Structures are given as structure tokens and as C-alpha cells.
Amino acid sequence: MIDRAGHWFLNSGIQEASGGVARYYRSDLSRNAAISTEITGYAVSTLLFLHQRTGDSQYLEAALRAGRFLTGHAWNKELRAFSFEWAAAGGEPGLSYFFDCGIIVRGLLSAWRVTRDIEFLDTAVAGGRAMLSDFPSTGGIHPILTLPDKRPRPWEPRWSATPGCYQLKSALAWHALFEITGETAFERGYESVLDAAIENDRDFLPGEPERHRVMDRLHAYCYFLEGLLQVLDRAECAVAFRNGIERVSTYLREIAPAFARSDVYAQLLRARLLGEARGALPLDEAAAAEEAEQAAGFQIASGGFLFGRKQSEDMPFINPVSTAFCLQALAMWDDRNAGRPLPGLQELI
Known about the structure:
By secondary structure, this protein is mainly alpha-helical. It is 58% helix and 10% strand. It has a three-stranded antiparallel β-sheet. Strands 7-10-11 form a three-stranded antiparallel β-sheet. A hairpin with a 4-residue loop joins β2 (25-26) and β3 (31-32). The protein starts with a helix and ends in an 11-residue tail after the last helix.
């Protein structure tokens, strides 16, 4: 199953010749969406995870193509920014998302750890510094900036356009950069986002009256849980993590008959497994087994994973991030059941 998912990344065309990776494939239209810088950042981490696991050099080569797309095309040196979707030559830069930038930086750091290529590290550091200078405000982290002026876009009533606890996963990029560079501004940035995330925790869910939108917010809330994994030695964070696991599990099972996202099953399973490995909570094995079974059920013949189902009907999106999260969650579930150590937090896609 994991091999089939990896081969989908290599052979489906979801990664284009430039090295960039499309946001998703539309099975009903037989075409890719536009290249996404965020999704390309996720792909770097995913392909390197697959290379580490299999030793297949094709994954390394594909990961480095994606990484060089990010350093050579996606990073705008003049603006010092990553745009939301890559604009081809002559196109408008558009928007820059705080969350996306953190995912890209983490992907570049993954490439640097494997290759020690200074281009990956330099771009990651520059991206992290730009995040520090451009996005914070007295009201929290601005989620979106307009480019080229880098002005905050007005907040909107949807999770990705409003500050929230989900931003903690992106701030993991600052935590990693502090460990590598020793620059205390990165540490302060992470800690400030952590404080805001803990404060926002109880308000984020359900956050919407419409149940389908609550499922989308579960995906985002799982980013908060992933961000907490770094600080589970702190009592307040461990309590928030344990309570969060229960809340996601309850909402997921209530809403899934009407709308289920594969990535939520996978993210919840990963969080459970890593929480157990870090001594934060015992594993609910029955719940974990169910989540693994449900996540696996979204894989289709091509090897990719569907984004989701509504009223038991498949949605026509084969999604790189859904595929990445599901293949890693299932690999980790296999490792745990076989008594093998789980991947480290740096390898969390």
C-alpha cells in the first residue's frame, strides 16, 4: 500500500517537469490543478520519508527536484516571499500564507539534512526570517499577506483566513531553525505562537454551525496537535494534547457518515502514535485500528488517496497531502505493530 502511494507520487504526473507539485488531481476532469508551493513543500518531506524508508533513489531525485523548484522558482528573492501558488514568468505574485511558508521551510530543511546543500538551508533561513518580519502583529499572526506590498489581507470567517491554533504547525519551522542556527528570534517566534495557540484551543472547535465545515476545521485542529508534539513535556501542553485527541475523535466519528476527510483520519492516527511514543497518553488501540482501516480505504487503484467522501460518494480529488499523511500514518501504524521505532518529529510530514 505504501509502495503504491509512493509510485503515485513518482509516476502519476502530480509532480510536473519543473519539480513543482500540483495542489490535486481532478479525476472527473482528468487534469491537475495549479502547482502549489505549499504542496511542493509537503512533497519534499514526503519523498524524503519514502527514500529513507525504501532506499529507492528515485524518491531522493524527485524530492530534490521539488526542493530546487522551491529555491529556484518559488522563492522570490526581491520580495523575500513565497507566493501561494507559483506564478509563471510574467505572472502576478498574488498572496503569501504564513502557514504555507512554514511548510515550505520545513520541507527545505528536510532536504538540507539529507544533502547538506547550503542552498536549501539559506533559503529556509531567509524564508523563516521573512515570516518573522512580515506576518506577526499585535493581534496575532496574520494568515495572509498580499504581494508585492506585503500588506495583511483582511481576516475572513474561514479558518485559513483567520489566526488560530492551527498556525502552531507552521511555527515548527521556527523551532527547527532555532535548533539549527541558534537565532533566539526564531525561538521567541515559536513560543509566541504556542502561547496564542493554547489560548485559542477551546474556541477553535467546533467553530462552525455547519457540520461539513467542522470536518474541515478538524483537519486544521490536527495541525495544532502536531505542533504540540514538540512540547509534550510541558504539563499544560500535554493536557491540551490529550483533550484535543478526544475532541477530534468524537467529532470525526459523529460527522464521518455525512462527510469524511482521509487526512483527518491519518492526522489523528499519527498524533495518537507519536503521543504514545512520547509518553503523553496511552494508545487507544481499537480507535487507532479503526482510523488506520478508514484511512486505508481512501486509496484508489492509481495508488493515490482520495481527499474525502460525502454521503459515501467519492469526491473527485486525488490529493498529494492526503496521500502523504495517509501513507505516513499507515507506515507508522505498521512500525508500531511490528515493534519498530517510529519516525522522529523532524520526519513528520
